[in-house]
Specification:
Length: 104
């Protein structure tokens, strides 16, 4: 791993007094890490675009299934339809046909 050493230019370096404990190297590191943490604080926003695309496509696919099924069968899909429910639908349909035939 390469190390980067910061050597401040003598022309840009401020004059330090004898009691001054801050060094230009320390200021550089403080600036470097602060700017990096500020950049990293909004990295999670980069995930919103793919998340929005994936969520949008899931919604589009679900609605497409709903509208295709409704167009093909004339009513929304019955969720959780097992054999008993299918048998009862057939029975109800036959009973309604008998009632309609008896009224004619």
């Amino acid at each position: 791993m390469a190390r980067i050493f910061y050597r401040p230019s003598p022309h840009t370096q401020s004059k330090r007094t004898k009691g001054d404990s801050s060094s230009s190297v320390w200021e550089f590191h403080r600036y470097f890490w602060r700017s990096r943490s500020e950049k990293m604080s909004l990295v999670w926003l980069e995930a919103l675009l793919p998340l929005g695309i994936i969520g949008g496509m899931l919604c589009v696919m679900g609605n497409a299934q709903y509208y295709i099924h409704r167009a093909a069968h004339g009513r929304p899909k019955h969720v959780g339809n097992d054999e008993w429910d299918v048998a009862m639908e057939r029975r109800d349909k036959k009973l309604m046909e008998k009632v309609a035939a008896a009224q004619d």
